[in-house]
Every structure is written in C-alpha cells, then in structure tokens.
Amino acid sequence: MATCANAKKPRPATIPSLGASAVAAALLLGLTAVPAAAGDVTVQLTTSARSEAVKWYERHLDCEPIEGRAEAVDCGNATIEFRQGPIMGASQGTGIDHIGFSFADLEEKMAELEAVGVRGSGVRLQRYDDGSTLRERPGLFKVGRIFDPWGTRIEVVEDLDTLSFHHVHLSASDPERTLGWYRETFGGVPESLRGTQDGLRFGEVWLFASEHPEGRPAPSAGRAIDHLAFEVADLDTAAVGLRDRGVRFTADPERPAGGRSEAKRGFVSAPDNVRVAVIEPGWRGVDADFGSDADEVASAEPYVVPRTPWGTPDLQGMWSGNKAHGIPLERPEELAEVEELTAEEAAARRERGTLGSIWGYEREWRDTTLGYVKSAPSRQVAMVIDPPDGRLPPLTEEAQERRRNAAASFGDYVRRRPAGPEDLTAYVRCISRGLPGMMMPSIYNNGLQISQSPGFVAIQKEMIHETRVVPTAEREPLGPGIKQWLGDPQGRWEGDTLVVETTGFNGRTNYRGSSENMKLTERYTRLGPNRLEYQFTVEDPTVWTKPWTGRFEFELDNEQYELVEYACHEGNYGMTNILSGARARDREEAAAAAETGGGGQ
To answer: Is the pTM of this model over 0.85?
Structure first.
C-alpha cells in the first residue's frame, strides 16, 4: 500500500529481519506461505449477492472465474471469496482498511471506471482535493481509490512489478507490532517496496500497515472486508503450535457446515480486531445461506386471521415491502416457462435493482441491501398474474398515439427551462407517486403502516408519507366534479380480505400511462402471522384493451421498523438547484442578447 486513506500520514513500519529461529518455527508449524488454490492469500468480502459481486470484480478489476466456485474469483495473485450476508459497514475504520490492485496503465483504467459511473454497475471514485482521481506518490507510482458497491475500499496503483491483486493494507494501533505478528505467525517475508514502503510479502501480495487515526480499529467481522485467510499444510498440527505461542482460536479447526471439500478451516484473533482464517489445501469455500423465504412457509393448520375488537380482520401493524424489491412488473421473456426463481437468483435480481439505482446514495440509505430483512428476497418471477403470461395487455389505439406524442415531446420537456416548481413533475416536487405506484417496493422507504378504527382503514406509505383514509362503511361517492391525486376510495370487507375500489383520479400522476379514467381495485389479505398479500387490478379502457392484475407481499416488522419523518422538500437541494440553474441560464442569455444587440446597432 503505497498510500492510505487515513486522516494521519501513514507511518511506515520498520520490520526487523526474519531470524533463522523464526524461519525454523514457521517451517515446523507448516506455516510457510503455501499458495492457496488461486493465490498466496485469500480475502473474504461481504456482499448482498455474491453472484453480482463475482461479476463486478470480473468486469472492473479483471479477475477470473474459478471452476466449481460460484462465490470466488481468481485475481492473479490472490483469491477473493464473497460471503453472503448482512453488511455492517464499509472496510474503512476497521483493521483491514483496503485492498489494492495494480494496472499497467492506470490513467486508462481510471478513465474506464469513471466512464462507468455510479449508476448501473456501481463504481464510485474517490477524488482528491483538487478534483483529480489520480495522484503521484513520490518514489512509488500513481495511485487512485475506488469503492465497490458493497463498501470495500480499493486502492488502484501502477506497479509494473506486481500486476493484478497487489496488496492488503491494515489499519493498526501499532503497525510494527502488527506486521511482526503476521511475519511470526504466517511466515511473511519482510521487504521494502522501492525502498519507500516497508511491509511483508506473501508470494506476490504485499501486506502493509499504517497507524489508525483513532488508535484502535473497529472489528473487521461483518464489515465489507470480513477476513483474511492463510493456507497451512496441516491445520490440526499447526493449531497446536499456534496455541503454544499464544494465538487464540475464535473458532476451532473443523470442516464447516456447507463446506465444499474436506478441507478444514479455523479462525484466529489477529491484532487490531482483524478476523483471520487458517485453511487447509483443497479449500473450496462454503455454500451460501440465503435464509428462509416466507413465501415457502406452510402451516399444517389453516391460518386464522385475528380480529379487531369490533370484529373486522386485523391488518394493523408496520409492514415492509423490502422482500418484494426487485420483482419486475412484467414477466421477462427469458423466464416465460419459469415457475419461480432460486434463492440465489432472487438475491442477485434484487441486487441488480439496487446497483441500477444507486445514484450517489451510500449503502446506509438503501434498506434492502443492509441485510435487515427477516426473510430472503421474494422468488416471485413477476408481479402481473393476469393475463396469465405475466405481460400487460395491449394498449388501445388512443394510448398508443398518446405514447408516441409523449416520446416525441420528451426532449422538449428535458430542454425546457422551468419557470417555477409547477413546471416540474409531481415526483420531483415530492407531491405524490400516485397509485398504484406509491405501493411499489423500491431500494428504500418501503414501510407500510396500517391503522384501523370502526368504519375506516388508514394506509400510510413511507415514501413521501402519503396517507389514505379508506371508509369501509358504504357512502355516497364524491361525484364526477371532484378529482384527487389519490382518487376517491371506497372499502369493503369480503371475508378476510379488505377490498378498496378507487376512482376519481385527477390524472396528474399516472402508472404506466394510466389516465384519470382508471379504476383501481386493491385486495389486502393476511396470509399468515407475518404475511400480507397485496393484489391490485387496473381497469382503464382508454389505455389498455382489458384489465390486468398484479400481486406481491408485505412482511410484518413491528419490532425494528418505524416510519420516521420523510424530509423531502426540507432538504430538496435538487429543486433549488434546478430553479437557480434555470435562472442563471436566463441571466446568461439575457446578457449575451444585450451584448449582441448593443454591438450590432
């Protein structure tokens, strides 16, 4: 690690030469740097979807797939494994600050990564104070910093002597002592990178350490870089020697549940709260645990829906649509014959949805990626269940013409300079997402709170904090002259199902082109203690040739989920910037026109 992101300037660690006795001890314990399956060192990262992480590292950092291992990649000098599970935070601040890769032409590589951008594949670049993405390290080489979508900090360097995976950089309370521990425990070779940065070499991989700015690093376990792994010839024999030398095992050597080979693995406690695995030759990783899916849970007894004190089905509580995030509205053509996804396919699909909508948001904003969902992502192939092919019905001729006109005028809308907030969409203005759009799951703000009283049901959605008060006692409709953003709802109970029919939309929001003539019929049915089915049928004869129906499920989460203030306009810098930018352009054009007019007349 030629450079470090810590606030303090890195303090190079001076490593004493490795004495003959230390070499002999390492050999006796079987702790020589025996190459692992695809490299000298293994680094395990935590991810929301390991298959998507594999693709990311193959695409952006030129790693290669490993036959028979869906959860790991060969990065030339090291193996990177991906652990499926909750991510408790980025690698920064832990005892494993970052990992490094080297490329022959770093300017070209950084330009390639910058062109990808954050949206889509999710490559985030860290810029220096002057706005540049690269910096020259005197005596070393060019360096830059990027982040993967799961919070791993990655340093990219231009070291022609060691291409591909380059280094692991530790953050230590005492860098010299920390590197000494790795040297004595795993047999690293002390060397100095171009006489400037001291460290250890494990095969072709460098191990560096810099002083942590706050003294003691946070634990690595559960963070973006979960642990390092070193291979030993005979783990049982090595474990005896390690314990004799005071190394503490946090998990005894064993073949782990789900292990793909007979190789054993144990975990030891390294300095600075770093988790380190010790593995045997032939290690092939561990099968991922994708959790239980409430969609698959069945009870031997039929579920009895609880009742309110006044006798209606009780739907009250804090529900979350997080598990349904990623389900497409329409069935993809390539999945025409698929009944349901596998658990891994569902996790990967949801992760793709997240990566496609990252914008500039940190992971902490994206609820569905943090791993705090009680069940696995839904394996439902598509929301549309009628028509049976999972596709929306054909558009009417009128709707097709309207869509052609909208496509033709979209460029004008984008180029048109707004005179005020009224010229912007209801979504930009934080007014409404409309129906059924407000019910749809996304990367965050998927909370749904239902409250009931005799004759009424209140349905509040977290996104934009829209609340609908639905009367369940029959009443006169508002009438054709009164149109509302969310329409005029009328509810009723059909057995255990709440049915809500809504008309009277003002047409200023739409879903997939729906008009003010839309009739929306929703059905809320409690399928189990923690499951709420939501079905919605859209009838709009001016848009679609026939009605269509979709469904997905919400999950009860009263213990940890709550609806907090939805501060949109309170922090809506987008609105301020859009309008102030428009006025700035107005002034520029006015000044240019005045100058041209004055000079020509």
So the answer is: no
